[in-house]
């Protein structure tokens, strides 16, 4: 009896994740792949479902030796750096490395949540972001990013098929161009820029407008869409890095320090933001769409 209990305990200990003897972080015995939907809507809202952005996350024991093969989905590798601290690297569907991938980091945080059992930190391309978990959403703490008002480019109306109210830029030449439209504009009806956008600008295009309560579909107060065909992303379904920028953009226009946004891509995304001093928190729901799968050779 005692021997069988001892054998059972040994088998259970071998099946559980183990702790790295230096960092104390929990590591899966072998690489594990999960597929998720990020920035989804309320599962109970069947009338107007918000699908979010799909992502495939592979949890590793250490930094990967090579990039993944291109796939039809955002792919992320994540590996432990310390206790409740992990690195993340992401690639878009065309195989390009992503500098700042909000939905990829949110998906990675969701994958580590069960092992961390509390708030943690993610590092992506040298930037550290705090991760906070509440009952319904996961939050990422970005450093504040300001947008600078600029003249409206003369090509914008031809690209979108609608006249903008204002424009602003953020980041370097490969950063962002924010295009604000008249309040309550139906962003689902605007023209989708094609690769010719690259002839005008190397910036990703964030098209946004304020939304009145009578036009809101899920209680949101802004709408936006995100286009980057120059980098192999005709349109992103749900974009956390764009929400990071829009939080301060709309705060400066009087919408306050807490926002709820609906990304009007065909799939739809539901995102939240909170501005707290020099940190912009971006949050959303995450759902797993498959069971954990162990892989080899990563």
Notes on the structure:
This protein is an alpha+beta fold and 298 residues long. It has two domains: 22-139 and 286-294, Diaminopimelate Epimerase, Chain A, domain 1 (Roll), CATH 3.10.310; 148-277, Diaminopimelate Epimerase, Chain A, domain 1 (Roll). 15% of the residues lie in helices and 38% in strands. It is built from four helices and 20 strands. The chain has helices spanning 2-15, 102-116, 156-160, 240-251; strands spanning 18-19, 26-27, 32-40, 53-59, 74-82, 85-91, 97-98, 120-124, 127-133, 138-143, 148-150, 166-170, 176-180, 204-210, 222-228, 233-236, 258-263, 269-276, 279-288, 293-294. It has an eight-stranded mixed beta barrel. Strands 1-2 form a two-stranded antiparallel ribbon. A hairpin with a 4-residue loop joins strand 9 and strand 10 (138-143). The longest helix is centred in the middle third of the chain and has 15 residues, at 102-116. The radius of gyration is 21 Å and the shape is globular. The protein starts with a helix and ends with a strand. Residues 1-25 have low confidence and may be disordered.
In terms of topology, how is this protein built?
Blueprint: H1 2-15, E1 18-19, E2 26-27, E3 32-40, E4 53-59, E5 74-82, E6 85-91, E7 97-98, H2 102-116, E8 120-124, E9 127-133, E10 138-143, E11 148-150, H3 156-160, E12 166-170, E13 176-180, E14 204-210, E15 222-228, E16 233-236, H4 240-251, E17 258-263, E18 269-276, E19 279-288, E20 293-294
Parallel strand pairs: 4-5, 6-8, 13-14, 15-17
Antiparallel strand pairs: 1-2, 3-4, 3-19, 3-20, 5-6, 6-7, 8-9, 9-10, 10-19, 11-12, 12-13, 14-15, 15-16, 17-18, 18-19
């Amino acid at each position: 009896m005692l021997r069988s209990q001892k054998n059972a305990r040994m088998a259970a200990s071998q099946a559980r994740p183990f702790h790295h003897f230096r960092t104390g972080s929990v590591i899966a015995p072998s690489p594990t792949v999960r597929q998720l939907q990020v920035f989804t809507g309320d599962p109970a809202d069947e009338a107007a479902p918000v699908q979010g952005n799909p992502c495939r996350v592979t949890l590793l024991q250490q930094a990967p030796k090579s990039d993944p093969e291109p796939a039809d989905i955002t792919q992320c590798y994540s590996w432990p750096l310390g206790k409740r601290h992990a690195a993340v690297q992401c690639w878009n569907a065309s195989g390009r490395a992503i500098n700042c991938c909000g939905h990829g980091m949110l998906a990675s945080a969701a994958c580590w949540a069960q092992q961390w059992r509390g708030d943690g930190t993610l590092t992506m391309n040298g930037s550290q972001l705090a991760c906070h978990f509440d009952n319904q959403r996961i939050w990422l703490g970005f450093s504040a990013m300001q947008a600078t008002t600029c003249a409206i480019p003369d090509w914008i109306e031809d690209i979108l098929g609608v006249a903008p109210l204002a424009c602003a830029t953020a980041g370097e030449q490969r950063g962002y161009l924010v295009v604000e439209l008249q309040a309550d504009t139906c962003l689902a009806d605007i023209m989708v820029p094609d690769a010719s956008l690259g002839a005008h600008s190397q910036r990703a295009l964030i098209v946004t407008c304020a939304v009145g309560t009578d036009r809101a579909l899920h209680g949101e107060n802004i709408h936006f869409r995100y286009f980057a065909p120059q980098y192999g992303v005709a349109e992103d379904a749900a974009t956390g890095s764009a929400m990071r920028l829009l939080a301060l953009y709309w705060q400066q226009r009087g919408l306050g320090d807490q926002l709820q946004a609906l990304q009007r891509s065909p799939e739809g995304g539901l995102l939240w933001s909170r501005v707290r001093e020099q940190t912009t928190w971006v949050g959303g729901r995450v759902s797993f769409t498959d069971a954990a799968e162990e892989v080899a050779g990563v």
